[in-house]
């Protein structure tokens, strides 16, 4: 708990405090309404209703198996690729249900990009990794591609380190650089939302800190939802936090309030380390 308070104070010192009232709730970008989700017979999410504000960071926390990643993956229909899954309820992206039959899933995933825990670059050059998405979406113009690659690498805070070796294999980058490359790859298709599933859990403290700084910068332009096991990290990087337990959303609110004065006893027990 002391650590988490320190994380919040550090974050506030870095200029993320909006005062005692907490962050202002912006326009809603995503909203889940009464979402149930099943893997075959096994129900993994129960009646989740939650908003994700635009251009802010929302962290999903909770003990292992509580449904954080499942919920994250429902937000760009990544679960569609798992056989035997189904849902009831709605997930609205700017007020339109992403599960409507007329939704183009490729287009949806362009708007709602994803970065995984241990993102693996393709065994291609740094340039080709970042250009991959735009090329899939039909872009062929070399100059335009070069512009997108540069912009994405600048945004993912990797440009300075790689600008002179864009033709080198991405596999030669360090773990932290590979993760930033994968963030650049996600940014290259110009998404509005970035879903991050434990983006720093496989990294050393210095690389983790870079990714956290990057998340902080990216929220100026993107809506970010991040799954993390690390409560200090949630406290450091997020504006809003949602606590999941056994497939249910127990509480969601302003990060500072949730970590210092939660409404629910289960949240209090979890953040003080009584379980999980
Ligand atoms: N591909 C899958 N097939 C079947 N069941 C799954 C699958 N993925 C997850 N589950 C189940 O759904 C439930 C929620 O899992 P999920 O991975 O969403 O939890 P989590 O909170 O992200 O956990 P962790 O923190 O350990 O990654 C668990 O009971 C899990 O076993």
From TrEMBL:
**Stored Pfam families:** ABC_tran
State if Oxidoreductase is listed as a keyword.
Answer: no
- Main location per the UniProt record: membrane
- ATP-binding recorded as keyword: yes
Which residues fall in a compositionally biased region of kind Polar residues? 1-10
Q: What's one GO-annotated cellular component?
A: plasma membrane
GO biological process annotation, one example? phosphate ion transmembrane transport
Top-level lineage group: Bacteria
* Keyword terms: ATP-binding, Cell membrane, Membrane, Nucleotide-binding, Phosphate transport, Translocase, Transport
Q: Which CDD domains match?
A: ABC_PstB_phosphate_transporter
Looking at the record, which segments are called Disordered? 1-24
Membrane topology, as annotated, equals: Peripheral membrane protein
Can you provide one Gene Ontology molecular function annotated for this UniProt record?
A: ATP binding
Role of this protein = Part of the ABC transporter complex PstSACB involved in phosphate import. Responsible for energy coupling to the transport system.
Question: What is the official name of this protein in its record?
Answer: Phosphate import ATP-binding protein PstB 3
């Amino acid at each position: 708990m002391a650590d988490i308070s320190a994380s919040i104070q550090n974050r506030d010192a870095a200029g993320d405090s909006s005062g005692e009232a907490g962050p202002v709730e912006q326009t809603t970008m995503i909203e889940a309404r009464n979402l149930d989700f099943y893997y075959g017979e096994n129900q993994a999410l129960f009646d989740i209703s939650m908003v994700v504000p635009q251009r802010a960071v929302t962290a999903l926390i909770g003990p292992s198996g509580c449904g954080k990643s499942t919920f994250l993956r429902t937000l760009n229909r990544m679960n569609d690729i798992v056989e035997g899954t189904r849902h009831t309820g709605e997930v609205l992206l700017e007020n339109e249900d992403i599960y409507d039959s007329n939704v183009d899933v490729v287009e949806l995933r362009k708007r709602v990009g994803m970065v995984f825990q241990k993102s693996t670059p393709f065994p291609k050059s740094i340039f080709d990794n970042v250009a991959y998405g735009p090329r899939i979406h039909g872009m062929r113009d070399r100059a335009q591609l070069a512009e997108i690659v540069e912009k994405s690498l600048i945004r993912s805070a990797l440009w300075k380190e790689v600008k002179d070796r864009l033709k080198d294999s991405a596999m030669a980058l360090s773990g932290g650089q590979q993760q930033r490359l994968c963030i650049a790859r996600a940014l290259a298709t110009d998404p509005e939302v970035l879903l991050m599933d434990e983006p720093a859990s496989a990294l050393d403290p210095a690389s983790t800190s870079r990714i956290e700084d990057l998340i902080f910068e990216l929220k100026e332009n993107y809506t970010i939802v991040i799954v993390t096991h690390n409560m200090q990290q949630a406290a450091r990087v997020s504006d809003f936090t949602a606590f999941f337990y056994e497939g249910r959303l127990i509480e969601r609110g302003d990060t500072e309030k949730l970590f210092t004065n939660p409404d629910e006893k289960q949240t209090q027990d979890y953040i003080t380390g009584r379980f999980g």
